[in-house]
Amino acid sequence: MNPTEPLKPNTNGMLRLFVYGTLKRGFWNHDRFCRGVLTVEDAVVRGRLFETSSGIPVLQVPEEDILAVGTTNPRADVATQAHVTARLFTPQSTIINPQYEGAPWGPVYGELLTFDDPENRLPAIDRLEGFHPGGPCLYCRVLVPIRTNGTGLPAWLYVGEDLSGRLTPLGGSRWPRKP
To answer: For residue 173, how many C-alpha atoms fall within 13 Å in the half-sphere facing its CB?
Structure first.
């Protein structure tokens, strides 16, 4: 991606996925689920990070940042991503410059992965994340604004809820937290 080029609608079946935990490069699920990804770029999203007692990260994002909720149909989700990009992410749009500061939200850093084969990859990643549209979910896949290379665009990511009250706030913007 050239940051000086204007954004173009995604019409070629590519899916963008923001990852902040075990799907990042160097972690145990990256090679298993993301090997052969087209691109990996540093990216940031507005949210807050927590950790489970077993050390797994959980991201929460502001409700108003959710542009769409994922489905069981990867092709439909690619189309939704393209539609949202074309409709909301114009050079004049304020959504491409979200405010990352302001309690309780802040910047959360991760990686933006671009897949050219979402019909093969997304169902396996959804299973890993416990995402079951229409049913109980461990994590929910949502489309939100992210920033990479100074450019705002929508990307899918997995968010979780603290239904048990047992999540520990990380107090930082990256996982794993550094001692």
So the answer is: 14
